[in-house]
Amino acid sequence: MKLLFGNKKDDLLSRLKRQEPAAQKVFYDQNVKKFLSISRSYVTDLYQAEDCVIKAFCKIFKSIETFRNDGSFEGWARRIVVNECLNFIKSRKTVFYLDDINQSYLEEIYEKDIAFDFNAQELLDQLPDAYRMVFNLYVLEDYSHQEIADTLQISVAVSKTQLFRAKEKMRKIYFQQQKALKNEHY
């Protein structure tokens, strides 16, 4: 396939700023899978995640003039996708910053018992929204706890607690899955 715009990202960006449909299609085709993967890490339902991606693309195309070339265009667009997912989760009003984990629950970890053939998306899907949002922002988006607190309008302490609890919950889910797999094989 012949490249429409050559290899220059600046060329694609300038065409996007002129609202050229061909440029929008190229940008969409280049990024839709990546953006859906980002969205799925926040939103468990595939169809709702797709809706978030579509809304994000609309916002990107509508507000592209606000991109000031301060950082990377990809980073700017990714942030729009993340924010769209966060807005979707907040709009459902199902985010509770409470814990349902028994803190006394600890499983010993033996390196030989750990299997590395697990699906990370399945683990993320089982986390409560509050845990998943903080975990993703911290681990995937590299936000500081202060940035997470500002974005989600929570305290830094709550951000740190949610991250800790998300990791514990994922560990618990992982070991439950491993036990179930072991029991199936014996």
Give a brief description.
This protein is mainly alpha-helical and 186 residues long. It is built from 8 helices and no strands.
Walk me through the structure.
The protein has 186 residues and is mainly α. Helices cover 66% and strands 0% of the residues. The chain has 8 helices and no strands. The chain has helices spanning 9-17, 21-42, 46-62, 73-91, 120-125, 129-140, 145-152, 156-185. Helix 2 (21-42) packs across helix 4 (73-91). The longest helix is centred in the last third of the chain and has 30 residues, at 156-185. Mean pLDDT is 81; it is low at 97-114.
H and E order: HHHHHHHH
Structural class: mainly alpha
Taking all Cα atoms into account, the compactness measure Rg is 20 Å
Tell me the distance between the termini.
52 Å
Give the key terms.
8 helices; mainly alpha; 186 residues; 0% strand; globular
Helix-strand blueprint:
Elements: H1 9-17, H2 21-42, H3 46-62, H4 73-91, H5 120-125, H6 129-140, H7 145-152, H8 156-185
